[in-house]
């Protein structure tokens, strides 16, 4: 598709031709145009092309407020899951080096961490993924356009290049998968000027140094965890509670472990201003909302992890009649990911009520491609999606929290089996296992169907994946305890839970 300048005679001729073609012949340039080449958009476009559809995907990255930019692949690849998990791994290796000496490794000299080596290696890997995505699109015959997409009408998209050139495309179906971007607080002077977000942290060339992380959910705790783990002085500022929406007993254990690991917490506190001192340091002032007292400290970096906004503002949705939620700005979608305009669909992080997770975006995108190609009517099942928070001690869960199970089934309608356990690898290295904990929440009556499963310990994501299959299959507590464990592992502790919370007995596991 040739680049065209909007308003030129040629643009008008072609634009009018497309409108004519659409109205009078029902033919379009593409069967499907996807706006957004992140986890969901790439999966949807590639799947649709495999099914014989003519597909184009538009992906465009607006640099962050600090000027950070990246390549094809969206949040997960560039500024999310991948660099985060690799930096988490860097932190885990630091702990492993300490453990190693107890296991006989002779490590001479002091062990220290070099940010630039880690960052460069992570950034190079991410760049290889950007390249890999381009190659895959080419192999699968998806047209990739590095353009910022806006809807012109319900079948027409205008793509704008970095240089300001416009391209007009028409499609039978349009899929919106533009994801989200981190927010800055609106009422804190100096926040944008002096702060960074998760869009910047993974691309820093120099260490962020002593860091204040504001926020207390996934992004905040994961970033604070790896920063602490690589040896940086790190403070988390919590406005209300940690990990809202998660089981709060588990959230408490996650932050207890982080505190013992070296992360500092300022509870019930909100920042009020950020100033740059002549020394170059950032002075942050905050209020403790419980005591009303004002405090301040200096930091090298302030990382805002106060939530994300959907990228829906620039899409021209109002012109076309695509409805969004007034509260969240996300697209209101049906079970089939359809928007209020019949041939326009939205999913992933911009779908109202959807989990903001990569695997759900990928699966939903693939299923949508099958439905659009007329190959299947299968809908995405958003129930019992497992997730893991990659904090220094990882927390994985699937299903309901204890409070939510109680709300749905009543306190007497559920049984909670729990255990504090010691991972074998913690023994020789004498690591504190006080927070290694498991909780299985079941219905109390009938066949004791499992409602929720929570695991805090090493490799929680790896442990939980298989159990999420069990929950999808409707697993019950007797089936869990009939399953033979793999010894010696932490995962086997899940098969052995037998102490109920109701009994009040000590749930500490002793012996094998
Ligand atoms: P995105 O991946 O955000 O892709 C959207 C793409 O569309 C982007 O490339 C964007 O630049 C582009 N775009 C936006 N507007 C336009 C436009 N108008 N025209 C063209 N292109 C446009 N999830 C997990 O499952 N596990 C994790 O461990 C995990 N860790 C995370 C860590 C962090 C720090 C963050 C921020 C997120 C993490 N997530 C994780 C969440 C995960 O990254 C997102 O849920 C996922 O990327 C959403 O996919 P998406 O396709 O909806 O959007
Ligand atoms: P969330 O919306 O989950 O959390 C925002 C946090 O910031 C909350 O702790 C909130 O506190 C706090 N906050 C909001 N505004 C302010 C403010 N003005 N001042 C101080 N604190 C404030 O956002 P995240 O960015 O952490 O995560 C977004 C999504 O990304 C997650 O829901 C998750 O789906 C996905 N993700 C997944 C990961 C994984 O799978 N491992 C990792 C990272 C992200 P309060 O509770 O008081 O509102």
From TrEMBL:
Coiled coil: none
Chain ranges of the Pyridine nucleotide-disulphide oxidoreductase dimerisation domain: 385-496
Active site per the UniProt annotation: 487
GO cellular component: cytosol; mitochondrion
UniProt binding sites for FAD: 85, 149, 349
Keyword NAD on entry: yes
Start and end residues of each FAD/NAD(P)-binding domain: 30-365
Cofactor: FAD
EC number: 1.8.1.9
Record-level Gene Ontology MF annotations: flavin adenine dinucleotide binding; glutathione-disulfide reductase (NADPH) activity; thioredoxin-disulfide reductase (NADPH) activity
Positions annotated to bind NAD(+): 215-222, 307
Gene3D superfamilies according to UniProt: 3.30.390.30, FAD/NAD(P)-binding domain
Source superkingdom: Eukaryota
A Pfam family annotated for this UniProt entry: Pyr_redox_2
Record family assignment: Belongs to the class-I pyridine nucleotide-disulfide oxidoreductase family.
Record-given protein name: thioredoxin-disulfide reductase (NADPH)
Annotated source species: Oryzias melastigma (Marine medaka)
């Amino acid at each position: 598709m040739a680049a065209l300048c909007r308003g030129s005679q040629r643009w008008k001729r072609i634009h009018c031709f497309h409108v004519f073609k659409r109205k009078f012949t029902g033919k379009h340039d593409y069967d499907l145009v996807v706006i957004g080449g992140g986890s969901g958009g790439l999966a949807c476009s590639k799947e649709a092309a495999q099914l014989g559809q003519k597909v184009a995907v538009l992906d465009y990255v607006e640099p962050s407020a600090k000027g950070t930019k990246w390549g094809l692949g969206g949040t997960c690849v560039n500024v999310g899951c991948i660099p985060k998990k690799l930096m988490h791994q860097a932190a885990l290796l630091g702990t492993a080096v300490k453990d190693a000496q107890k296991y006989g490794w002779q490590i001479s000299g002091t062990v220290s961490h070099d940010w630039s080596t880690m960052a460069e290696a992570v950034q190079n890997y991410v760049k290889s993924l950007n390249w890999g995505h381009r190659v895959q699109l080419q192999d699968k015959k998806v047209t990739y356009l590095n353009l910022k997409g806006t809807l012109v009408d319900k079948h027409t998209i205008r793509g704008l290049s970095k240089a300001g050139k416009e391209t007009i495309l028409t499609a039978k179906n349009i899929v919106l998968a533009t994801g989200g971007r981190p927010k800055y607080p609106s009422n804190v002077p100096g926040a944008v000027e002096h702060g960074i977000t998760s869009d910047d942290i993974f691309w820093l060339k120099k260490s962020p140094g002593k860091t204040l992380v504001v926020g207390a959910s996934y992004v905040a705790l994961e970033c604070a965890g790896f920063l602490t783990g690589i040896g940086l002085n790190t403070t988390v500022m919590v406005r209300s509670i940690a990990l809202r929406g998660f089981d709060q007993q588990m959230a408490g254990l996650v932050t207890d472990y982080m505190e013992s690991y070296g992360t500092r917490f300022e509870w019930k506190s909100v920042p009020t201003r950020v100033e740059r001192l002549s020394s170059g340091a950032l002075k942050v002032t905050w209020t403790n909302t419980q005591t009303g007292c004002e405090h301040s400290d200096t930091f090298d970096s302030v990382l805002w992890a106060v939530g994300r906004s959907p990228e829906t503002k620039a899409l021209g949705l109002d012109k076309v009649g695509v409805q969004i939620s007034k509260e969240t700005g996300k697209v209101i979608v049906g079970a089939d990911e359809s928007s209020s305009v019949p041939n326009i669909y939205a999913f992933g992080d911009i779908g109202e009520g959807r989990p903001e997770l990569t695997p759900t975006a990928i699966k939903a995108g693939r299923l949508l491609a099958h439905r659009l190609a007329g190959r299947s009517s299968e809908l995405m099942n958003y129930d019992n999606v497992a997730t893991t928070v990659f904090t220094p001690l990882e927390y994985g869960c699937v299903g309901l929290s204890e409070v939510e199970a109680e709300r749905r089934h009543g306190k007497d309608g559920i049984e909670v089996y729990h255990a504090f356990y010691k991972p074998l690898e913690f023994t020789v290295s004498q690591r504190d296992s006080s927070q290694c904990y498991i909780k299985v929440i079941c219905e109390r009556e009938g066949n004791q169907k499992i409602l929720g499963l929570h695991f805090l310990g090493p490799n929680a994501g790896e442990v939980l994946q298989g159990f999420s299959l069990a929950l999808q299959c409707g697993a019950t507590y007797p089936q869990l305890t009939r399953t033979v464990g793999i010894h010696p592992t932490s995962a086997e502790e899940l098969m052995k839970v037998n102490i109920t919370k109701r009994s009040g007995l000590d749930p500490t596991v002793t012996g094998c």
